[in-house]
């Protein structure tokens, strides 16, 4: 993947996404001692950065492929993103969701015309059901993060941020499956000469931290984190990019995540989901090292169940 | 009060306030059938429009008065606004708060260097305590809303909105003591030839609605509303302005307020307080009348207790 690929990707998806605002906060600057620039993907269409990657992945398909639709298995933001991106582009999206997925998530997918197929709540069932739809409908399977086109799409958030604020010295992003941090790291490596990329990851699902230590993919035995968007492990496409371009991963505990989330809600008056608070939590955990630095943080999304808040 | 007064006020307070953003939402336009422009005073300094009026009221004082400080009694946003405005201008703010005010409100005032004096939780005690401070310290009493300088300050939110969107046909604002809606109505009468101003008020504290019917100030027997910023009755300075310049008041029930609040949180991803949702609730209650109209809504504030949400 090259700088030209990323620029082309941005040009292609622009008509279908929002250029999200960059917010600053005097109070959070005081608290952190640094100069913070929040790239607000919680204001992105459907409420998360995933809209970027899903749109780009669909746009790369041939007309023949587009006519047969796309399929994925997800109970989270990628299901909504793929449904809305497909709807915007006039094609079909088949979404495999576990039968125990919250009704609010199913409703959101249905509102964007996603065709839901329910399956038993195991990873094997999800994969098999998706494969069946691929065969029956001829639909193209799109992976939520382990896909070069998706990674490029996610990288356009950092691209926009660096275009507006070229002097940013550090870029923080959350690490789940690695699509966002890999795209962010590519954008920084292409369009900035001195921007260090740092990942934030919950201690409870720290496979990426361990993978950077061991040099190979690691698994998470459990996923007991409030940051429900970060439970997936790295993939074999995201990991090499992260290994090459991400300098370090800072792990945070659950209390730090919740307290960073509350800080953003109370001080910045914006709604973000728990996963989205992880980069700020990581920064605050080690704030002494980042004093007076110019720091970009990707606020990844704002889809949260108001009836089930962690504070 | 003249157009020149309002322009002068805006010029004076500009260095101390944020020019807040105006947000739009495709989804809320779809739901309402109208074209909505949200003036986001929840992003104002200290989290509410009250910062505008408090700053203006202090700036109008003589140097002699400023040297002795200001005093008010309030347990809400005006206490915080006066404290922060006074702090910004290097003068003292004495805040009388009822002993049963939530700790979070006391902390907020203290964080802005407001000097808190507690008193028993009756209106009489609040007034007497404030009077005592006036006498002892020579501080100037400032009323949260029944004050021309405060009203002009609050009107600058609508002024900014109409400067950016001169074609707005309706302006909605919440009605409590009347400072914000009076200022909004003055701004519309000065700077727009065809903008109708409409108030939103909870059924549970509908003194303004009744006052417009009867032609005189009315009282609220009870104040059982989730919109805690709208419990105060109109004053003898706000009422005549409202009578002259506000075309109507639409009342809403508690369910409508909570559901409008939830809609803004979920769809726009911003944190607003319950009072702030009342104008949207009023618009949605009668949305058939406003189809395809260009409508400005003043989102008044975002100071909400996250541990005590109504949903």
Query: DSSP helix count of chain A?
Result: 13
In terms of DSSP E residues, the strand content of chain A is 15-25%
Assembly category: homodimer
Spatial separation of the terminal alpha carbons of chain A: 41 Å
**What would you call the shape of chain A?**
globular
- If classified by CATH, what would the architecture of the largest domain in chain A be? 3-Layer(aba) Sandwich
Task: Give a brief description.
Two copies of one chain form a homodimer. By secondary structure, chain A is α/β, with parallel strands linked by helices.
Explain this structure to me?
The structure is a homodimer of 311-residue chains. Chain A is of the alpha/beta class. Chain A has 2 domains: 198 residues, 3-Layer(aba) Sandwich (Rossmann fold); 91 residues, Rossmann fold, CATH 3.40.50. Chain A has a 6-stranded mixed β-sheet, with helices on both faces. In chain A, helix 1 packs across helix 3. The longest helix of chain A is centred in the middle third of the chain and has 17 residues. The first copy, chain A, is globular. The mean pLDDT of chain A is 96. The interface between A and B is medium-sized, with 16 and 16 residues.
